[in-house]
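Lab notebook, bench 4. The sequencing result for the construct came back, and we need a structural model before the next group meeting so we can plan mutations. Quick request posted to the team channel:

Model the 3D structure of this chain.
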Amino acid sequence: MKTASAIEVGSQDSAVPATLAQFTQLFNELDKGNLNKLSEVYSEDVQFQDPLGSVRGLDQLTHYFAGAYANAISCRFDFSEPVTHGDTVAIPWIMHLRHKRIKRGREIMVDGISHLRIRGGKVCYHRDYFDAGQLLYENLPLVGRVIRFIKGYAG
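Done. Here's the predicted structure in token form:
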């Protein structure tokens, strides 16, 4: 029995699987020293949003990721099977992050999902959904202690 590598709904643009492969590869290679690779995956007019901010255009996206990766020690993603519908993709992931300012550089894991739209072989829309508390608030020294105190007091 043959299984599909992704769940596909409706007709699909032939560029979608190749672009998605480039996307997943990019995010497992990306760091502050190779942000120029963003142009291989993203369109010039890309719209990007996550729980921490939103930007428009490849230049702003590059600047946004420069800030995001500035103090990252390492960052990699375990991507799950994508769901595609035409030029739209939803791909769940677990981010494994080591950051100088989060949890003293120890690895944290954050669950999320990316919603992408692909046009002409490039990602033109990218929105990430994840729990910002799981990323930051629960892992920053003082804030983490306050959250654990509040949870302990309430429970």
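The two ends are 49 Å apart (CA to CA).
Will bring this to the meeting.
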